[in-house]
Amino acid sequence: MSIRRIFLDDVHLTFQARTRGSISLKDFVMHKLLRRPAPPIPTVQALRGISFELHDGERLGIIGHNGAGKSTLLRLLAGVYKPTRGRCEIHGRISSLFELQLGFESDATGRENIRYRGYLQRETPKSIEAKLESIAAFTELGPALDMPIRYYSSGMLVRLAFSIATSVDPELLLIDEVLAAGDMAFLEKARRRMRELMDRARAMVVVSHDLSAIGKMCDRVIWLHQGEIRKMGTPTETISAYSRYMKELAQQQAMIEAA
Amino acid sequence: MLIACCRSVINYFALLWSFRYFWSNLVKAELQRRYRRSLFGLGWSMLQPLSMTLVLGVVYRKIFNISFWDFAPMLLCGLAFWNMFSQSIFRGCESFVNSESYIRQQPLPLVMFPLRGVLTTGFHFLISLGLTLLLVWPVNMVFYPWALLSLMPTLTLLFIFCWSIAILASFAHTYFPDTQHLAEVSLQALMFLTPIMYPPAMLERSNLGWLLQYNPLAILVEMLRGPILRGEVPELFTYGIAALIALVPALLAGWVVSRYEDQVIFAL
Questions:
Q1: How does pLDDT run across B102-135, given as a tens digit for each residue?
Q2: Could you give the maximum distance between any two Cα atoms of chain A, in Å?
Q3: What DSSP state is assigned to residue A101?
Q4: What is the DSSP letter of A109?
Q5: CA-based nearest distance A101→chain B, Å
Q6: Is A108's CB within 8 Å of B106's CB?
Q7: pLDDT in tens, A78-135
Q8: Can you say whether the dihedral through the CA atoms of B36, B37, B40, B45 is positive or negative?
Q9: Taking phi first (over 0 means left), then psi (-120 to 50 degrees means alpha), and beta for anything else, what does residue A11 get?
């Protein structure tokens, strides 16, 4: 077995923040024809000079404000984004649990969607058939599984997505705070399943706003601030530094409001 | 340089192949839903070309004095081709946007999304061709096995052509959301510049005959009609031209994929 490892060296990610529909072909051609400069597209520096190494058996936590680049970093590790500059080496199979908006075929039944998801994990029809029943059972959706998922409630979709996403045998596990929805009974079950998954994973990167959970789970924590690593160290070190900063920020804000 | 290029192309197709169960099952499911495992469903989706053929066949017989049994198979074959081509572009345009949630989860060979649309429309296309053959039968009462065999390379080239165009459309539409609208307008114009709804002979008689020689779509559609309607095997030279017609968009699509595939996520 080879060694599971994540290695990032001075990774930058810059992209143009063009939202869909920002430029039409008509405008584009007109600007070219009239030699008028096109309106500038704002550039976002989502990640700046990120370097770290994650070895087999390690659990890395990532904390920071909204928009600090936490989820972007996770997506970069998953290979969804390619670094603009720098090196990103991943050795091992990535399993990711991002926001549970998995791609689904809304006309297909829950059971069919379980299969399609499996195929995206490079399962074969045979290998997915073996897993199908246990995934289906975990959802507790019963006969609804044979209904097209366009009729599912959001809670049902979360159950389905979660059951599929956590049915993997993880090597390098990437987790972006996922347990947002679902009813209480399922939430408890889901938490247990997550813990099992984390125990089985060879290495893990987790993004969360829940500082105490991160502190308990991880053996190293990165504090991201505006796309840069502000601090990296043991959970206690990083989390206390981050909490101090948060407190100062709150005080400043209170002063501004008072003034 | 060339070797490295070839290697990355081969790797890319291997990657695409590793996801084969995903895209092939999506195509299968879509076709099954459409047809609900019945012949009636099949007839339903053939309704558009068939009713067009029937109506135009009758009208053309009255106006231009063209025999229905000459005209109908020609039209049906032309419509089959045109639907394949235009649907590839249409569905191509939407393919990335509709698959955004897949694309945001994991790195995927993006060409599989346009491929999905091309395979689905390709299935309808083949059925329409089969129907054309059935229409030719009662008139000619002959069967041209060699001519039908000569369709194989044509169909392969046509598949490459449509897939490449669909890929180009999908990228264009992701970056420029008015692409589909523009495509709609230009396809309508293009349809009248291509002998789909009228026999190519009508163009030849006018002074627009050069359109037949320089319109790649006209060349492709005649490569289908020749063997099916008249049992004519296209010349080797024509195959060369068709290969060129397929190769140009294919190379362009390859370039676009290598240059922009990683960037699509930021445009979605």
A1: 898 888 999 999 999 999 999 989 988 988 888 8
A2: 68
A3: -
A4: B
A5: 7
A6: no
A7: 888 999 999 988 888 888 887 666 678 888 889 999 999 889 888 889 988 888 888 9
A8: positive
A9: beta
B97 SS3 class:
helix
Render the burial of B183-207: b for 16+ CB within 10 Å, e for the rest.
beeeeeebbeebbbbbbbeebeeee
Q: Does A31 touch chain B (CB under 8 A)?
A: no
Calculate the CA dihedral of residues B169, B175, B180, B183 and round it to 10 degrees.
-60
Q: CA-to-CA distance for B202 and B189, rounded, in angstroms?
A: 17
Contact (CB<8Å) A119/B268 = no
CB pairs under 8 A between A and B: 81
Q: What is the pLDDT of residues A210-236, one digit of tens each?
A: 888 888 888 899 999 988 899 898 998
Return the SS3 of A148.
Answer: strand
Cβ density class B131-156: b for 16+ within 10 Å, e for less: bbbebbeeeeeeebeebeebbeebee
Any idea which of A177-191, B16-30, B68-82 has the lowest mean pLDDT?
Answer: A177-191
Considering CB atoms only, which of A25, A80, A125 is closest to B104? A80
CB pair distance less than 8 Å for A120 and B22 = yes
Q: What is the ipTM of this complex?
A: 0.82
List chain B domain ranges.
Answer: 33-267
